[in-house]
Specification:
The complex is a heterodimer of chains A (442) and B (266).
Chain A lengths: L49 H15 L5 H17 L6 H26 L7 H18 L4 H26 L3 H20 L4 E3 L5 H7 L1 E2 L2 H29 L6 H24 L3 E2 H19 L1 H11 L1 H6 L4 H27 L1 E3 L7 H11 L12 H20 L3 H28 L4
Antiparallel strand pairs in A: 1-4, 2-3
Chain B lengths: L9 E10 L2 E11 L4 E6 L5 H9 L6 E6 L2 E3 L4 H7 L1 E4 L11 H5 L6 E2 L2 E2 L1 H14 L16 H13 L5 E5 L7 H16 L3 E5 L3 H7 L2 E6 L2 E7 L5 H9 L5 H10 L8
Parallel strand pairs in B: 3-10, 3-11, 6-9, 9-10
Antiparallel strand pairs in B: 1-2, 1-4, 4-5, 7-8, 11-12
Helix pairs in contact in B: 5-6
Classes of the chains: A mainly alpha (442), B alpha/beta (266).
Pfam family, one (chain A): BPD_transp_2
Subcellular location (chain A): Cell membrane
Main location (chain A): membrane
């Protein structure tokens, strides 16, 4: 593996977008020593080329606490191995396929939570909002005879508006987000009960748009493989085009080996998942929607002006303000996103059980959504995280729930184990933050 | 060396500012020309910060005139200061630790189309900018949290240059920096001057001031207390202008005990 730019053999490649975790150094710099390589400051860490380089870089990152998604991936593998050894049904296509649909509702809520956590804030009302949105959907669709699409849009609109109210009180009045959304949690639970009326449960038709959200499977074999193929090819093309642009601009590129490795890992995961899903009913529509939402959210966070503002406000409010960013606007908009995503999650939750009831969005839904984001690697302290943590974290939580259900373990134990996993995730976050500080990286 | 004959880029005349019972600034004058470094010095409470805020548009003056390239202007807001061409680098840096160097340089004015960032263009311009200023940063893609204090300061200063300012105001840029890092920042100040920018340098450190400043404007108790040619004035003269002392601390104590109303003033 050689640097394709060839401009500076000692400077490693930069990762274009990956939030700059690369330990490589692209600027030939420094006073340096008397050595021949006078361009390079000897104190700088330069990533070696090739596999050894990856290994060294990996070790250095682990030591300095830049764990990224590693703990959650390792955790997931361990969890799957343990439950598979306990019950061979765990990794069966049917169970994995059901798992992939079960993560969607709470996972969508979690995507909104990630945005809020990036600001270093919290939204405790997301569960209640999802329940209220499900209630609005069911009542408008079933009792009032609205078309399902109109009812869904209305549910999302209502929840977004309520998120706007949270944001307004937080950003303009200055009430801590914790208190605003705690009040919201109580109030919107009340709203949910009021909308549902005395019966408390509204059943949704088993056929129709709402139910089909979670009951549709694309059972043609080509669907799942096609999606995997599109994803891998898309990733490869974007990487290559990005590299070409960087090369023509004269700035360091990723090495070809790097691109190939990433593409290969993605291909293994994508086609593996497609193979498993095809063994059962095919590609679930709900999973497809969830994946699209996660990818779009990630794009918004990392690649848009808006996302940069969110990270800036989460990193240093004063710096963001002085840079001309309207902190209040960012905060309000983030709570609107959280409200909207909570509603979408609520719609999927209602779709999954074909009814909206007083229990929708209650109990542990909120805690699961927040736990998923944190387990997935999004920091509670703001400024660090990714939309993919919603997906990874939900996989962990739902795998535990599913594995324990297969074993016939009672709810009480499930709660305790999930609590322990959440604590472990936050401990990892805190410890890695501390060692990052020690390594001068936080 | 100083170009007195030309119209100053920024001229303050008779600036006064009052906070409640405190007259923070009284009839203060200050001129900054293109391509010169003016050090603004004074003891704590001399009115430096208030004057910076006047220029930066954070706290407009009660009376007095501000002239920009010869014509009278008002600076009612930080945005107005920036659009005139005044960039301010505050003491506490105002960088986002979680963003990389490129992200910080372009914070609030990212390049891109339809809201989508153009990382390639931003990285290229960042590298060009840092290269022009001979700034040594290990990588433009590492979070600024991992940079040293001096590097962070140079990033903060170069960020102010992206808006193509004519005046750069540096508030205590070398405070809390080590020897080597201070040298880096002072080098950068000299490069700013050689690129034709006017620099206002606020500092407590007389060595730094003597090293890079062309003129030294002294504030004392909210009033001008002389403008000195940095190269032809000794450090002691500047310090005595700052403190108002004619000789030393011992004589000041004696003066105070002899004359309780403090005859050492002005």
């Amino acid at each position: 593996m050689t640097d394709p730019t060839g401009e500076d053999p000692l400077a490693g490649p930069t990762r274009s977008g990956r939030h700059a975790k690369s330990g490589s150094f692209d600027d030939p710099v420094a006073p340096a020593g008397p050595a021949a390589q006078a361009q390079i400051d000897p104190r700088l860490l330069v990533r070696e080329q090739g596999l050894a380089g990856y290994l060294g870089e990996f070790k250095r990152r682990m030591r300095s606490g830049e764990l990224g998604s590693l703990p959650v991936v390792v955790g997931l593998i361990v969890i799957w191995a343990v439950f598979q050894s306990l019950n061979s049904q765990f990794l069966s296509p049917q169970n994995l396929s059901n798992l992939s649909v079960d993560i969607v509702a709470t996972g969508l809520i979690s995507v909104g939570i990630v945005f809020v956590l990036l600001l270093g804030e919290i939204d405790l009302s997301a569960g209640a909002l999802s329940g209220a949105a499900a209630a609005v959907l069911a009542v408008l669709h079933v009792n009032q005879g609205w078309s399902p699409l109109a009812a869904m849009l209305a549910a999302v609109a209502v929840s977004t508006l309520l998120g706007f109210v949270h944001g307004l009180f937080f950003a303009k009045v200055g009430v801590p987000s914790f208190v605003v959304t705690l009040a919201g949690m109580l109030a919107w639970t009340g709203l949910q009960l009021w909308v549902l009326g005395p019966n408390g449960t509204v059943n949704l038709p088993y056929e129709g748009l709402v139910a089909s959200l979670t009951s549709t499977y694309f059972n043609q074999v080509i669907a799942a493989y096609g999606l995997a193929g599109v994803a891998v090819a898309g990733f490869l093309v974007i990487s290559l085009v990005g590299n070409a642009r960087r090369r023509s601009a004269g700035i360091p590129t990723r090495t070809t080996g790097d691109v190939i490795l990433r593409t290969a890992v993605l291909a293994v995961v994508a086609f593996g998942a497609a193979y498993v899903l095809n063994q059962y009913k095919g590609l679930p529509l709900a999973l497809l929607i969830f994946l699209v939402v996660v990818v779009v959210a990630d794009f918004v966070q990392r690649r848009t002006r808006y996302g940069r503002k969110v990270f800036a406000v989460g990193g240093n409010i004063e710096a963001a303000r002085r840079a001309g960013i309207s902190v209040a606007t960012v905060r309000i908009s983030v709570f609107m996103i959280s409200g909207a995503m909570a509603a979408v999650g609520g719609v999927f939750a209602a779709s999954r059980i074909a009814s909206a009831s007083q229990a929708t969005g209650q109990s542990n839904v909120l805690m699961m959504a927040i736990a998923a984001a944190v387990i997935g690697g999004t920091s509670l302290f703001g400024g660090r995280g990714t939309a993919y943590s919603a997906l990874l974290g939900m996989l962990v939580i739902q795998s535990i729930a599913s594995g324990m259900a297969l074993q016939g373990v009672s709810n009480s134990i499930q709660f305790m184990v999930t609590g322990a996993v959440l604590l472990a995730a936050v401990v990892i976050d805190s410890v890695s933050r501390r060692s990052q500080k020690a390594a001068g990286r936080a | 060396m100083t170009t007195i004959t030309r119209t100053p880029v920024l001229a303050l005349e008779g600036i006064s500012k009052r906070f409640g019972a405190v007259q923070a600034l009284t009839e203060v004058d200050l001129e900054v020309h293109a391509g010169e470094v003016v050090a603004l010095v004074g003891d704590n409470g001399a009115g430096k910060s208030t004057l910076i805020k006047v220029i930066a548009g954070v706290g407009p003056p009660d009376s007095g005139e501000i002239r920009w390239e010869g014509s009278a202007v008002t600076i009612p807001s930080p945005g107005a200061a920036q659009s005139l061409g005044i960039a301010t680098v505050y003491q506490d840096l105002a960088l986002c630790d979680n963003l990389d160097v490129v992200g910080n340089l372009f914070l609030g004015r990212e390049l891109g189309h339809f809201g989508v960032l153009d990382e390639v263009a931003m990285e290229k311009r960042s590298r060009d900018l840092l290269h022009t200023l001979s700034i040594r940063i290990p990588s433009v893609r590492i979070p600024v949290a991992s940079l040293s204090g001096g590097q962070r300061q140079t990033v903060a200063i170069s960020r102010s240059l992206l808006g193509k300012p004519k005046i750069v105001m540096l508030d205590e840029p070398t405070a809390a920096l080590g020897v080597e890092q201070t040298a880096q920042v002072l080098d950068l100040v000299e490069r700013l001057r050689s690129q034709g920018l006017g620099v206002i340098l606020i500092s407590h450190n007389m060595v730094d001031v003597k090293a890079v400043a062309d003129r030294v404007a002294v504030l004392r108790l909210g009033r001008n207390n002389g403008v000195f040619d940095a190269k032809r004035t000794t450090q002691e003269e500047i310090i005595s202008a700052i403190t108002g002392a004619t000789d030393n601390a011992v004589s000041r104590r004696r003066a105070r005990t002899d004359q309780p109303k403090d005859g050492a003033d002005d």
